[in-house]
Amino acid sequence: MKSFKTVDDFISGQEKWKDELVYLRELFLNTELEETVKWGFPVYTINNKNVIGLGSFKSYFGVWFFQGALLQDKKKVLINAQEGKTVAMRQWRFDSREEVDEPSLMSYIAEAIANQKAGREIKPEKKKPLLIPDHLQQAFDKDLSLKQSFEVLNLTKKREYAEYIETAKQESTKVKRLEKIIPMISEGIGLNDKYRKS
């Protein structure tokens, strides 16, 4: 996905929804929010805190509320686009300009601004500490170079390996999984690297 430096670049770089994005942008600029670009997308802030964002995709355009889970959502229009991953953020999607209910949208934005000013926010849960399963620890105790190879992996890869062993229900499965991952760890390969985009 292309990264844009300015909101004008973002809008002109869209194949679809240009007029709709200009329309929403004008609404946002009539609030006290400040316009910026983060992660290549237009973001509107107050006191340097993200309040809303502007987005455009093939089948819809919309508004991201960074703390949308705190909104009353009287119209029941907000969705969590990444269920299980996103705790606070919510989207309001539109597939035409006619679908934009301006008074309701401005009411949602006003509520989002008020929440941010009041310091109301949902903070992401802190990750639990990395726990090494017994089988993996025993392998490290027997092979120091394996432990050293594991130590240089990033935290995500370490967690994936630990969970892979820990989630096996049977003892025999834990042993088989351990046998599978030892060479991968030694080579510095993550368990799910083949699924990751390079």
Strand content range: 5-15%
For the record, what CATH class of the largest domain applies? Alpha Beta
* Secondary structure tally: strands: 5
From the coordinates shown, what is the CATH architecture of the largest domain? Answer: Alpha-Beta Complex
Alpha-carbon Rg, integer: 23 Å
From the helix content, strand content and strand pairing, which structural class follows? alpha+beta
Give the tally of structural domains.
2
Query: Which spans of ≥5 residues are poorly predicted at pLDDT below 50?
Result: none
Structural summary, described in words:
40% of the residues lie in helices and 15% in strands. It has seven helices and five strands; from the N terminus they run ααβββββααααα. The protein has helices at residues 7-12, 18-29, 102-117, 134-142, 144-151, 155-166, 171-186, and strands at residues 34-38, 41-46, 49-56, 61-65, 90-94. It has a five-stranded antiparallel sheet. The protein has two domains: 7-117, Alpha-Beta Complex (Aspartate Aminotransferase, domain 1); 134-195, no CATH class. It starts with 6 loop residues before the first helix and ends in a 12-residue tail after the last helix. Helix 4 crosses helix 5 and helix 6 (155-166) packs antiparallel against helix 7.
